[in-house]
Amino acid sequence: MWFFSDEHRMLQETVRQFAQSVLAPRIEQLDDEESFHREAFPKMGALGLLGITVAEEDGGAGLDAVSATLAMEEMAAVDASTTLSYLAHSILCVNQIARNGIAEQKARWLPKLISGEHVGGMGMSEPEAGSDALGMKTRATRQGESYELNGTKTWITNGPVGEVFYCYARTGSAKREISTFVVEKGMPGFSTGKKFKKMGMRASPTGELVFDHCQVPVANRVGDENSSVQAMMRNLDIERITIAGISLGIARNCIEVSTRYAQERKQFGKPIGAFQQIQERLSEASAWYEACRALTYNSAKAFDLTGGLSSREVSAWAARAKLQSAQMATQVGLDAIQILGGYGYTREFPVERQMRDAKLIEIGAGTNEILRTIIARQMLGNDVAQA
Amino acid sequence: MDFQPTEMQTELSGLARRFAREKIQPVVEQDEHDERFRPELIAELGQLGLTGIPVAEAHGGAGLGYQDYITVLEELASVSVSYAISVAVTGLAQVILEKFGNEAQKQRIARLAAGQAIGAFSLSEAGSGSDAGSLRTTARRDGDHYVINGTKLWTTQADSAEVIMLMARTGAADDRTRGVSTFLLEQGTPGLRLGKREKKMGCHISHTMELVLENVRVPASCLVGREGDGFKIAMTALDSGRITIAASALGIARSSIEVATGHARQREQFGKPIGEYQGVSFLLADMATRYDAAKLLVQRAAFLKDQGLPFSTEAAMAKLFATDMAMQVTTDAVQILGGSGYTQDFPVERFMREAKVLQIVEGTNQIQRMVIGRSLLKTH
Ligand SMILES: Cc1cc2nc3c(=O)[nH]c(=O)nc-3n(C[C@H](O)[C@H](O)[C@H](O)COP(=O)(O)OP(=O)(O)OC[C@H]3O[C@@H](n4cnc5c(N)ncnc54)[C@H](O)[C@@H]3O)c2cc1C
Ligand SMILES: Cc1cc2nc3c(=O)[nH]c(=O)nc-3n(C[C@H](O)[C@H](O)[C@H](O)COP(=O)(O)OP(=O)(O)OC[C@H]3O[C@@H](n4cnc5c(N)ncnc54)[C@H](O)[C@@H]3O)c2cc1C
Question: CB of B335 closer than 6 A to ligand 1?
Answer without folding.
Answer: yes
